[in-house]
C-alpha cells in the first residue's frame, strides 16, 4: 500500500502557474470492495531564477515630460509560485526616477518608472539604470536588466486615452476575429505628431498576445486564439498609444477582459468495473461497477440540476412598514418623491410586483400618483404648506400569483414651509383710503407707547417671525419702534416746537430665506384732545369708499349687540337681587327662634352661588360686629336647598349642625 515516486517531479512542468498543484489517483480495494480517491500535492521549491525577456532595454523620454509621468517596464518571469515567485523590483539610485511596483489581478508583479524630477537634455543627455527582480525564496533569487534612457525633445502633446481602464466580457467559445473592445486616444498635434499607433505595452505577457490581436490603426482589440474559462477567467491587457513624432509621445491604458463560462464540457462518467464477467447467478445487489461524474464547467454549468417549481407562498415584503416623506412647498408638478421598495422571494409571476395607491382619501388620488411597476410615488400638483401640512395614504404591493398576495405600506407626506409669504399688515390697514391717525398728548415723556403696528405672516417658524424697524419718519429722533412687538414709543419727551403731524414708515421683515418684507404707514398727531384731531381731519375731503354702507351696518350691529348684552346683564342682576332678598327675609323669620345673636348680619348662600353640589351645601352667617361665623352643615338630601334649610332649622337635630357666635353671651343648648 505504499505510494512511491517513480521519476523526478518538476512542479513547473506538471502545473505551470497553477497553484496548488495536485495529482489525483484512485485505489480499489477488494474483499470487501471499496474505492478510495487520493491526491498528492506537489509543493514548490525556489529552484528557478526570475528571467527578463532581454538583458537591456532602451527608453526615449522627452525633456518636456512633467514630473509624475509613468513608464512601464518589461516584467520578469518566474515559473515558481507562492512566496518563491517574483515578489518585488528594485531600482538603482538616481536623482530623477523612482520605482512603483504594482500587482495584477492574478497576483503577479510589474514595475513602472515614475519621473520625480524633470529631465534636462542640456544637463544630461542619457541615463543608465539597473532594474533588479527579486523572488521571495530564502535566499532570494534575482535577475537584472540594464535600462538605457535617452533624453530627447518630444512632441508638445502626447496621446491621451478617453479612459484609463476599459472593461469587456467575452464568451469562452467566441470565434477568432470577434471584437472585444475598441480603445481610443487623441493627440492635439498636427501631421505625423498627431497620428496615433496602438500597440501592446512592453510588459504584456506573451500568452495574451497569442490570444488577442490589436489593430494598430483603429485600436480594435479582437479575439485571436481559443479562450478557455477553465484555464483563465480574467485577462489584464496593457495597451499603449504612440504618435509618429520624432520623439513619440506615449499614453497607456488597461483593458480588463472577463471570460464568461459556457457549457462546453459534457459531464465525464468514469466506470470502474470490479466483476468481469459477472456470474449468471450473482445475487441481487451485487456491485457490478463504480461510477463517478465530473464536469469541468463552473457554477450552474457544472451542476446536475433538479428543478423545483414555485408556489406563491410568500407575500411581498417591504423594506419599511411606513415611510415619512418631507417635501418643500411650491414644488414642480410631476416630480418623484419616494420609491416604495418591496421584494418577493417567489419566482416568475409569483414575484412580479405591482404597486397601487389605495383611494382612502379622494383628494390623494388627484395629488399623488404611483408607478405600477416600480413603486415610484409622484406629485401631480404643487403643494402649499399654508393649505395643508400633511397627507396620509396607503400603498398596496401585490404579486402576480394566483391567488395574489398583498402587503400594505403606509406613507405620510409632510409639506415643509418655504418663505413665500410676506408679512401682512392688519393695523393700520394698508389697502384703504381712510386716514388712521393716532394721537399723542403734548409733553408726553420718553417711553410713552403711542400705538402699535399689528401684522401677521402666513408662513411658519422663523419664516413667520416678524421684526419691525423705523424706515422713515418726519422726525427720526422723536419715535422708536419695538423690534419684535411693533409698538411705537416716544424716544424722548415731546417739546412745544415739535411738528403737530408726524408720518412714520415702518419696515416689516420676516426671518426667512430669502427675507420678505412689507411696510406700514402710521400717522401721529400731537394734540391735547381727540377733538383737535377731528377738527384737523375735517379739512380733508372724505374719499369715496364703495364699502361705506358696510361700515354703517357693522357699527349698527355692534350697537345692537351691546344693547342686548346690557339688557341681559341687567335682568340677571335684578333676578339675583330678588333671590337674595327672598332668602334674607326667610332667614329673618326664623332667626328669633333659633339664634340669640345681637346685631345685624350678612347671609351668604353657597348653594345659590353654584359652589357646592345640589345635594350638599353650607350656610355661613356673618355678624356685622364679629369676625366669627355661624356654620350650618347639613347631610346630603335630595330635596330643594330652600326646603332642606327650613326643615333643618325647624327640627333642630343636634347632630346636624354647629353654631359659633362671636357676640353671644352664652352657647345655645341642643334644644335651642
Automatic annotation (TrEMBL):
Ranges where the Cadherin domain occurs: 53-161, 162-269, 319-425, 432-544
InterPro entries given in the database record: Cadherin-like_dom, Cadherin-like_sf, Cadherin_C, Cadherin_CS, Cadherin_N, Protocadherin/Cadherin-CA
GO process terms (BP): homophilic cell adhesion via plasma membrane adhesion molecules
Mode of membrane association: Single-pass type I membrane protein
Subcellular localization(s) per the UniProt record: Cell membrane
Any single Gene Ontology cellular-component annotation: plasma membrane
The organism's place on the tree of life at top rank: Eukaryota
Annotated keywords: Calcium, Cell adhesion, Cell membrane, Glycoprotein, Membrane, Repeat, Signal, Transmembrane, Transmembrane helix
Residues annotated as transmembrane: 552-575
GO MF annotation, one: calcium ion binding
Statement: the UniProt record of this protein carries the keyword Oxidoreductase: no
Record's protein name: PCDGK protein
Source species taxonomy: Eukaryota, Metazoa, Chordata, Craniata, Vertebrata
Amino acid at each position: 500500500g505504499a505510494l512511491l515516486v517513480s521519476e523526478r517531479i518538476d512542479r513547473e512542468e506538471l502545473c505551470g502557474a497553477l497553484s496548488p498543484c495536485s495529482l489525483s489517483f484512485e485505489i480499489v480495494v477488494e474483499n470487501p470492495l471499496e474505492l478510495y480517491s487520493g491526491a498528492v500535492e506537489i509543493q514548490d521549491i525556489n529552484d528557478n531564477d526570475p528571467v527578463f525577456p532581454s538583458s537591456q532595454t532602451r527608453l526615449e523620454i522627452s525633456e518636456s515630460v512633467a514630473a509624475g509621468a509613468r513608464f512601464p517596464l518589461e516584467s520578469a518571469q518566474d515559473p515558481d509560485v507562492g512566496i518563491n515567485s517574483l515578489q518585488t523590483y528594485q531600482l538603482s539610485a538616481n536623482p530623477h526616477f523612482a520605482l512603483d511596483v504594482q500587482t495584477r489581478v492574478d497576483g503577479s508583479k510589474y514595475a513602472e518608472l515614475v519621473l520625480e524630477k524633470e529631465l534636462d537634455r542640456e544637463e544630461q543627455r542619457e541615463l543608465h539604470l539597473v532594474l533588479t527582480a527579486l523572488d521571495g525564496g530564502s535566499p532570494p533569487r534575482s535577475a537584472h536588466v540594464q535600462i538605457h534612457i535617452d533624453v530627447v525633445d518630444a512632441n508638445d502633446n502626447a496621446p491621451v486615452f478617453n479612459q484609463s481602464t476599459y472593461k469587456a466580457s467575452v464568451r469562452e467559445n467566441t470565434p477568432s476575429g470577434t471584437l472585444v473592445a475598441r480603445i481610443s486616444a487623441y493627440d492635439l498635434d498636427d501631421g505625423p505628431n498627431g497620428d496615433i499607433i496602438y500597440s501592446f505595452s512592453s510588459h504584456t505577457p506573451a500568452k495574451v498576445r497569442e490570444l488577442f490581436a490589436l489593430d494598430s490603426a483603429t485600436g480594435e482589440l479582437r479575439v485571436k486564439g481559443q479562450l478557455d474559462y477553465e484555464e483563465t477567467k480574467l485577462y489584464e491587457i496593457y495597451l499603449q498609444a504612440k504618435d509618429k513624432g520624432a520623439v513619440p509621445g506615449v499614453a497607456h491604458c488597461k483593458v480588463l477582459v472577463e471570460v464568461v463560462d459556457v457549457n462546453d464540457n459534457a459531464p465525464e462518467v468514469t466506470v470502474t468495473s470490479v466483476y468481469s464477467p459477472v456470474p449468471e447467478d450473482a445475487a441481487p445487489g451485487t456491485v457490478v461497477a463504480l461510477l463517478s461524474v465530473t464536469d469541468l464547467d463552473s457554477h450552474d454549468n457544472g451542476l446536475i440540476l433538479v428543478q423545483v417549481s414555485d408556489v406563491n407562498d410568500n407575500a411581498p415584503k417591504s423594506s419599511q412598514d411606513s415611510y415619512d416623506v418631507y417635501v418643500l412647498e411650491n414644488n414642480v408638478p410631476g416630480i418623484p418623491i419616494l420609491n416604495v421598495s418591496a421584494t418577493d422571494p417567489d419566482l416568475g409571476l409569483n414575484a412580479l410586483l405591482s404597486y397601487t395607491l389605495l383611494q382612502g382619501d379622494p383628494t390623494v388620488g388627484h395629488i399623488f400618483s404611483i408607478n405600477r411597476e416600480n413603486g415610484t410615488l409622484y406629485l401631480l400638483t404643487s403643494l402649499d404648506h399654508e393649505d395643508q401640512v400633511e397627507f396620509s395614504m396607503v400603498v398596496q404591493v401585490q404579486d402576480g400569483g394566483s391567488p395574489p398576495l398583498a402587503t400594505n405600506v403606509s406613507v405620510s407626506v409632510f409639506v415643509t414651509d418655504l418663505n413665500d409669504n410676506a408679512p401682512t399688515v392688519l393695523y393700520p390697514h394698508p389697502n384703504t383710503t381712510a386716514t388712521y391717525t393716532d394721537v399723542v398728548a403734548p409733553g408726553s415723556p420718553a417711553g410713552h407707547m403711542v400705538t402699535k403696528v399689528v401684522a401677521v405672516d402666513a408662513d411658519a417658524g422663523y419664516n413667520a417671525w416678524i421684526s419691525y424697524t423705523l424706515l422713515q419718519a418726519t422726525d427720526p429722533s422723536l419715535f422708536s419702534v419695538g423690534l419684535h412687538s411693533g409698538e411705537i414709543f416716544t424716544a424722548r419727551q415731546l417739546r412745544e416746537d415739535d411738528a403737530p403731524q408726524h408720518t412714520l414708515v415702518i419696515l416689516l421683515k420676516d426671518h426667512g430665506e430669502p427675507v420678505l418684507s412689507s411696510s406700514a404707514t402710521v400717522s401721529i398727531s400731537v394734540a391735547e384732545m381727540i377733538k383737535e384731531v377731528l377738527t384737523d381731519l375735517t379739512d380733508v375731503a372724505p374719499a369715496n369708499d364703495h364699502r361705506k354702507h358696510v361700515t354703517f351696518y357693522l357699527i349698527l350691529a355692534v350697537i345692537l349687540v351691546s344693547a342686548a348684552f346690557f339688557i341681559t346683564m341687567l335682568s340677571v342682576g335684578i333676578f339675583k337681587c330678588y333671590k337674595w332678598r327672598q332668602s334674607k327675609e326667610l332667614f329673618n323669620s326664623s332667626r328669633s327662634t333659633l339664634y340669640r345673636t345681637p346685631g345685624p348680619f350678612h347671609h351668604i348662600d353657597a348653594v345659590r352661588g353654584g359652589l357646592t353640589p345640589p345635594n350638599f351645601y353650607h350656610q355661613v352667617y356673618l355678624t356685622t360686629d364679629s369676625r366669627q361665623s355661624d356654620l350650618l352643615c347639613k347631610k346630603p338630601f335630595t330635596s330643594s336647598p330652600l326646603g332642606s334649610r327650613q326643615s333643618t332649622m325647624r327640627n333642630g337635630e343636634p347632630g346636624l349642625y354647629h353654631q359659633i357666635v362671636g357676640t353671644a353671651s352664652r352657647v345655645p343648648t341642643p334644644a335651642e
